[in-house]
Amino acid sequence: MTITKQQILQWLELSAEVFQAEQDFLTDLDREIGDADHGLNMNRGFQKVKDKLPSLADKDIGTILKTTGMTLLSSIGGASGPLYGTFFIRSASSVMAKEELSLAELTQMLQDGVDGIVQRGKAEVGDKTMVDTWDGILACLKEKQGTVMADALDCAVAEAEKAMKGTIPMQAKKGRASYLGERSIGHQDPGATSTYLMFSALRNASVQ
Ligand code: ADP
Ligand code: MG
Ligand code: MG
């Protein structure tokens, strides 16, 4: 089983839908430990991506991802714009010219993207950021190499949810929430949550 180019396009479309539906939820999370704009940022960025999708229909996966990253970079401000922008731009590097991806290729694609987030944002696991969710996802995908794609993605979604909830007791060490010190404890990180939503959309696209 592979993930096709159509499913990648579907992923981006579903992400735009979910960020529209969950805009207020993400913004409320960011109101607790940030500046109440994460839902707005993600929705604005992905609506712009959605506008671009028709023009990407005949492009390869790498080009689709790179264009997505550049669109997010230029349309989302704050911390998350450069981080998600970098994620998609870097994720494109190993999948240029490809029309479908095996589990191993998908894992490499996501790993490259996450390496970009870490290089740019310097967050480590446990800092209460989106990196925590990505770490759970990648651990699962690596463990499940050689198994059925759908099982690997289901495992990664479950792990992503666990990691997202695992940010609640953490004290933020990076980003705006870190300015709160101990007061950041007890709240779920907005970026860890948007990463969970975006990855769930990938799983949902892969079974369509
Ligand atoms: P801003 O904080 O600039 O308003 P957003 O609210 O859109 O940006 O995004 C906040 C999220 O970005 C946080 O919840 C966190 O997950 C993520 N984040 C912030 N700084 C970093 C970083 N250095 N590395 C990884 N993720 C980060
Ligand atoms: Mg914010
Ligand atoms: Mg902001």
From TrEMBL:
One GO term describing the cellular component: cytosol
Signal peptide: none
Domain DhaL: 6-204
InterPro entries from the UniProt entry: DhaK_L_YcgS, DhaL_dom, DhaL_dom_sf, Dihydroxyacetone_Kinase
Keyword Transferase assigned: yes
PANTHER family in the record: TRIOKINASE/FMN CYCLASE, TRIOKINASE_FMN CYCLASE
Organism in which the protein naturally occurs: Photobacterium marinum
UniProt xrefs under Gene3D superfamilies: 1.25.40.340
Record's protein name: Phosphoenolpyruvate-dihydroxyacetone phosphotransferase
The keyword Kinase is annotated on this UniProt entry: yes
Keywords in alphabetical order: Kinase, Pyruvate, Transferase
Family annotation (NCBIfam families): dha_L_ycgS
Example GO BP: glycerol catabolic process
Single Gene Ontology MF annotation: glycerone kinase activity
